[in-house]
Amino acid sequence: MTAISVLNTPPLESGDRLTREEFEHRYDVAPDIKKAELVEGVVFVPSPVRANRHGNPHAIMMAWLGTYWMATPGVGFYDNATVRLDEENEPQPDALLRLEPAVGGNSWISEDDYIEGSPELIVEIAASSASYDLNDKLNAYQRNGVQEYIVWQIYENKLDWFILEEGRYVSLVPDEQGILRSQVFPGLWLSVEALQQKEGATLNAILQQGLQTAEHQEFVQRLGQFSGE
Fold first, then answer.
1. Burial of 1 (0-12, 13-18, 19+ CB in 10 A)
2. Cα–Cα distance between 126 and 137 in angstroms, integer?
3. How far is it, in rounded angstroms, from Cα 202 to Cα 43?
4. Burial annotation 36-64 (CB, 10 A radius, 16+ → b, else e)
5. Could you give the CA distance from residue 39 to residue 213 in angstroms, rounded to a whole number?
6. CA 121 to mean position of chain CA atoms
7. What whole-number distance in Å separates Cα of residue 12 and Cα of residue 33?
8. Rounded CA gap, 36 and 141, in Å?
9. Are 97 and 76 in contact (CB under 8 A)?
10. Of 1-15, 119-133, 168-182, 188-202, which gets the smallest average pLDDT?
C-alpha cells in the first residue's frame, strides 16, 4: 500500500457505516487502534479498558475457558480474535471457543489468518444491559448461528448464557446448585455465584467436576479421532 493511499484513507471512527471491505482497509492502516468492530454495518471503537470493569472480569473468563481448553484437545480457544461473520459484521469478541469443520464446527481459519463463519461459543464482557453486546451484537450472533453466547454485565454483576434453539436465543437455566452447563462443549461447567463473587478456587472446582464426567471424556475421544491423537 502506498503512502498516498494511506494518507487518503479516512480514520476509523465509532458510528461510521462501512462495508466489511472498507472496515478492514481502514483498520489495517490504523495501527494505533487496538480494537475495532463492525456490528450490523456500524463501526465501534471501544474506549480504553478499565481495570476492574473489564480487565479483571476478562482475565477471570479467560482463566476459566483456558482451563477447559487445556483439558480438551481439539477445541480452539481465542482471545480478542477478529471474526468475519457476514458482510455487515466483523466483531472482535473478548473470548471464544470453536470446533473445526471436521468435527461439526461452523467456522474456519482463512488464508489471511482470520476466523470466518460462526464459532460455537462467544463470550463478551459488557458494561450493562444497555450495551450493544446485548442488542445489535446479540442479534448478529443469533442470526449467524453462534450456538452459545455468554454475556457478563459488570455493573449489574449479571450473567446471561444464551443457547440457540430453532434460530432464537433462549436463556440457559442453572441447576439447583446454581451451575450452568454448556450444551455444545461437554464438561464446561460454570458456577454463577462463584463467578459473581470472583471466587477462583470454587470456579475451578466446579469446572473440574465437569471435566471428570463421562460426557467430557467421550467428547475428548471423539475430537481425538479426527485430530489423529
1. exposed
2. 11
3. 38
4. bbbbebbbbbeeeeeeeebeebbebbbeb
5. 38
6. 6
7. 9
8. 17
9. yes
10. 1-15
Rg for the chain (alpha carbons), in Å?
18
Joined grid coordinates for residue 221? 475421544
Residue (of 188, 74, 206) closest to 121 by Cα position: 188
Specify which residues 39 forms β-bridges with.
42
C-alpha distances (whole Å) from 195 to each of 28, 56, 134, 211 are 36, 12, 19, 18
Rounded to whole angstroms, the Cα distance separating 46 from 49 reads 8
All 3 cell numbers of residue 161? Answer: 448464557
- Give the Cβ contact number of residue 68 at 10 Å: 21
134 secondary structure, DSSP code: G
The grid cell for 214 is 463421562
Q: What is the pLDDT of residues 19-70, one digit of tens each?
A: 999 999 999 999 889 899 999 999 999 888 889 889 999 999 999 999 999 9
Q: Where are the alpha helices (DSSP H) in the chain?
A: 3-7, 20-28, 56-70, 136-143, 192-197, 200-211, 214-227
Is 149 exposed, middle or buried (CB count within 10 Å of its CB: 0-12, 13-18, 19+)? buried
Q: pLDDT tens across 171-209, in order?
A: 999 999 999 999 999 999 999 999 999 999 999 999 999
